[in-house]
Amino acid sequence: MVSIPTIEPGDQVYWHCDVVHAVEGQHRGLGDSSVLYIPAIPLTLNNAHYLRDQRDNFISGLPAPDFPGGEGESKCMGRGSIEDVKSVQGRLMLGFEKFGGSSEASKEDKEFFDRVNRILEL
């Protein structure tokens, strides 16, 4: 592994998720640091369970389930809410809309979407 050189406030570091990486064993900064992870994942029943839990944490202003602990933004006034998500696609990806597929979806696909929507309690 190659260490990242000293960075200053406002600097950004990018890496590919397939490249091995690690974080320092001790955070020595005075404030929080953030990592933005943009995954591309398939819709599976297991991922639907995660999406449900992530949606519930979003509503409460808490960190995502894979980053548990802390109050997140739960006490922040004016934090993002579902009302800020204007597109159907955005609400779908956050677990606020039913998955349905097209009218041409196979019987198996429709049954799968029904199972996902039950997990999401929609």
TrEMBL record:
Taxonomic superkingdom: Eukaryota
One Pfam entry name: Gig2-like
InterPro entries associated with the record: Gig2-like, IPNS-like_sf
Protein name from the UniProt record: DUF1479-domain-containing protein
Organism lineage: Eukaryota, Fungi, Dikarya, Basidiomycota, Agaricomycotina
